[in-house]
Write a structure and sequence with these properties.
The complex is a heterodimer of chains A (about 110) and B (about 120). Chain A is an all-beta fold. Helices cover about 0% and strands about 50% of the residues of chain A. Chain A is built from no helices and eleven strands. The chains are: A mainly beta (about 110), B mainly beta (about 120).
Chain lengths: ~110, ~120
């Protein structure tokens, strides 16, 4: 069974530029999560989807971050414009019914 | 509010030593889940175990064992006869109970384990 797929794996951009991350969850997983992991820290939830509905986006900085999950499968997380403090690893995870979340390899974003 | 504390930041052992990673949690929920994840240098978080708050039985899986003590709000992880491949960052995490849905994970800051040959 294929795991959670994320792309790109690495991204370097200048501040004020836009950037987008893509996630393809494990087939059949109805819940999808985006986490941000700062250096030396544990992941922190940005947004959680149940199918195509965002059920928890309380931690998403909505002035510059946006996310969508088309047809309840793939998801895209966007930052516009990026700031230096957005440098982090962005992790996507998915789960089905159980509380076991399976994580992708992450996208390491560097904002210069 | 939920909180997970992993007081140890870095641990270094020699191969074949036993090592225990500590985890202390805080929650007001009466029902909750506890997790351990492993993050090797490749970056992907690997699920190791989930334990619900009803079940305080210790669990053993090969060289891994977990000790859940509700009285002290701890969920410690022991690796017996450590190996170089165990080198990674280990995260303890907590999720609350939400009927019919999956809850967000609150992670600790992680413990970097280095196993030297």
């Amino acid at each position: 069974e294929a795991g959670v797929v994320q792309s790109p794996r690495y991204k370097i951009i200048e501040k004020k530029q836009p950037v987008a991350f893509w996630c393809n969850p494990i087939s059949g997983h109805n819940t999808l999560y985006w986490y941000r992991q700062n250096l030396g820290q544990g992941p922190e939830l940005l947004i959680r989807y149940e199918n195509e509905e965002a059920v928890d986006d309380s931690q998403l900085p909505k002035d510059r971050f946006s996310a969508e999950r088309l047809k309840g499968v793939d998801s895209t997380l966007k930052i516009q414009p990026a700031e230096l403090g957005d440098s982090a690893v962005y992790l996507c995870a998915s789960s089905f019914i159980t509380y076991e979340q399976y994580f992708g390899p992450g996208t390491r974003l560097t904002v210069t | 509010a939920q909180k997970v504390t992993q007081a140890q930041t870095e641990i270094s052992v020699v191969e074949k030593e036993d090592v225990t990673l500590d985890c202390v949690y805080e929650t007001r929920d009466t029902t909750y889940y506890l997790f351990w994840y492993k993050q090797p240098p490749s970056g992907e978080l690997v699920f190791l175990i989930r334990r619900n708050s009803f079940d305080e039985q210790n669990e053993i899986s090969g060289r891994y064992s977990w000790n859940f003590q509700k009285s002290t709000s701890s969920f410690n992880f022991t690796i017996t006869a450590s190996q170089v491949v165990d080198s990674a960052v280990y995260f303890c995490a907590l999720s609350g109970w939400e009927t019919g849905a999956n809850s967000k994970l609150t992670f600790g800051k992680g413990i970097t384990l280095s196993v030297r040959p």
